[in-house]
Amino acid sequence: MTQYLSTRNTALRAGFIDVLMGGLAPEGGLYLPVEWPRLSDDTLRGLRGKPYADVAFAVLAPFVGGAIDDDDLKTILNDVYTPHAHPHTGGFRHQSVAPLVQLDANQWVMELFHGPTLAFKDVALQLLGRLFDHVLKARDTHMTIVGATSGDTGSAAIQGCKSCKNARIFILHPHNRTSEVQRRQMTTVADSNVFNIALDGTFDDCQRIVKQLFADEAMRARHNLSAINSINWARIMAQIVYYVSTALALGAPDRPVQFVVPTGNFGNIFAAYAAVQMGVPIKRLVIATNRNDILTRFMQTGKLTQGSVHPTISPSMDIQISSNFERYLFELMDRDDAALRTLMNDFLDGGAASVTPEKRAEAHQLFAAYAVDDAATTATIADIYARTNYTLDPHSAVGAQAMERALADGTLDAALPSVTLACAHPAKFPDAVKAATGHHPALPDSMADLFTRKERFTVLPHSLDAVRAFIDKAQ
User: Fold this and answer.
1) What are the pLDDT digits (tens) for 200-248?
2) Is 121 one of the annotated active-site residues of the chain?
3) Which is the catalytic residue, given 121, 162, 211, 428?
4) Strand pairing partners for 421?
5) Which CATH number fits domain 100-116+234-437: 2.30.30.240, 3.40.50.720, 3.40.50.1100, 3.20.20.70?
6) Which residues face 371 on adjacent strands?
7) Which ranges of 171-232 would DSSP assign to H, the alpha helix?
8) Model confidence pLDDT, tens digit, residues 438-462
9) Distance between CA 439 and CA 445 in Å, rounded?
10) Which among 133, 130, 124 is positioned nearest to 153, based on CA atoms?
């Protein structure tokens, strides 16, 4: 059976179900498999042309390690990833789940916005909700899910879990710091087990309070807390699948591919790193950040330094503390949990930490990074729309601009396929898209009445005590 350890305690061993339901390791670390499973070249070749659900089973079964019966897992994956299989959750509107669109000879966009909330988070969270439901029913128990969102995670988590009969879900979002579409996708869900908290602060404040809640052992026990943020390993695991399916579509394992990933929290691009560990031939990974460029600065200097969070037109990336980066730092530091704990304490308590020049050079063997400001983001939306009639949302445009720069300076090999991720539907950010292109992107028919639906949310100060009291009293 597959075993997991913690980034802050390599002696710890946990099974998949405990990792799924617990989210965060007891001492505050993040879970990773003790050993990375590998997909052979023959296995990869055998998956070419297979439905997304079949690829998902091949990728995910080694991580689940028999903790869920194979037939049950196949049923869950077929239900989630067969289009329209689950009308009550919206399902995925495209047969490929994560289809490719060609922009130029060797430049591609992977569309990840064909789920019920029009964002890449759906790909993992539709599955996570079904996994939670399966385990809770089997155990005849209840759970409280707590998460923080900078925009898209919250609505995707709610859509994934609103039908879980044995779970409540509390989502914290930064008050007045998401787009109206993002907010309404969360706050107009009427299910009684859904609670939206608008925190008077930034996303980092939301994320900090969620971590503090999980560090409170009495709170965890009282409510049987579980995480749905990208700190939950099962979310990372699910996202590996679309890197594998895309690589296969572009010639893997017989041709390497390259990915450009717009990211703030490092979860999405860590899934690409995991695909590399599994044997997928990914030559280069490009980190694309907005003005909140802590990850870009790390790749340039080897230093992690906290700064202020700057609001941008790509708000889901307005982050200065990238929680999932701890997973990569753990790998970069040769899985030395003591060294990782020291580095994270320096960063979280002192505001700065660094790795050696040798480790920075090692990171550069796979990763490159670019920061894209709002002006360049807008210009990229306009340019690609004018040249190709294809509309990007601001987050996806950050990736597209980083891809252009990486190709221009030789970081990406122009002879190989380069794929940037379209993480959200342009209609989620209509003002930014209209400012760049002159046209207002329409929401899909299923969301046509979004702006007339009644909202439900509670504004709270960024106080651990206030949030804890709210969860304790919620019915």
Assistant:
1) 999 889 989 998 998 898 998 999 998 777 788 999 999 999 999 999 9
2) yes
3) 121
4) 110
5) 3.40.50.1100
6) 289
7) 180-187, 203-215, 217-223
8) 999 998 887 888 999 999 999 999 9
9) 18
10) 124
